Amino acid sequence: MCASTMEKISDQEKKELFENLEKGCSARVPLRWGVNPRIILLNPELNRAGYTFEQYYHDPRVMCEVQAHFYEYCHRVLSTVSDMPEELPEEWSLYVDNQNIYDAAYFGAPVEFRAGQVPATREFLTEDDAEDFLKRDFSRPLENPWIRERLEFHRQMCEVAESFEYLGRKGTVRPFSVGFDGPVTVATNLFGENIHFLLGDEPELAVKVMQVITDAVLIRNKALANLHSKWEKGACGGLADDSIQLIGVDTYEKYVLPLHAYWYEQTAVAGAKRGIHLCGDATRHFPMIHERLGVTAFDTGFPVDHGWLRKQLGDDVMISGGPEVAILQNGTPAACAKRTREILESGVKSGRRFCLREGNNLPPCVPLENLRAVYQACLEYGWHE
Question: What's the predicted TM-score (pTM) here?
């Protein structure tokens, strides 16, 4: 079965697509875009007020406004070029958006705001600082300067939300929380290339640094969860660690895999399904992660050979991925459609556990016609036999 022209698909049909994807019985590969408010802030056509990321980060009213605009764009525009829902929510689900700086900033890395970019942090530690880092006290996370600052911002955002309204809808601010970008990634944020020199010169010391980072994050995340409810292990296990693309398979197995296993054990109940987000050139690690850690859902980036990956992981593993963002941003609609068809015909659909998206995270200013071309290709070539 295929569709030769763009067709109107109801929100209920879209919802069922994703429900059946989880069951392994979807009729078609669903498409969802991985997006966040940067597509508004860094697109002059959408950022009508001209807000900067620095304003967004420091002004709670700006954050509420931008997020509501972002949700509107997702439901009213991106829903026409994906299987994302069209109907607007009854209220806006607002949150303190720290992008990807939260781990490094928590450990003291300087936060920088660069024109045309998302917030970033700068590495500030060297190999010589490793021993001192191990001596730091991370037992009182709520006294951490960055956490105190962002909790205060959350309080202010809640105050703004009491009177905030957009398109006749109120906003509710979620409890403040942060995730974890993984031990290798956070160590790289803090030490730069020095953590990798340390892995080569003194691997035991490097592992101690990454263990301290992991334990400190666990303490922090539990403390934040306990501010609004009682922390409990999750029903599903999740992890990200993009920087493992910088290390070899042997190094991963010996020094990092045990840290990843520890994270899953500490954060999810026994027997929970496990997923992982890994951008970059990291697929060489995926078979080991699947076999040794029991991970059954992989959110991928670029570069990825989707057909090879399906053969390596088997039909029961969930894979999310799709066209490289460079093609989406700079290519023609024909090129986007061609690449999408290549992926869908690579064998990755086997098992009916593939979700199409960009590889990875939709950048600002992607031409809408390119996204439409991907969705059209999905409607033509995404059907299961």
Answer: 0.96
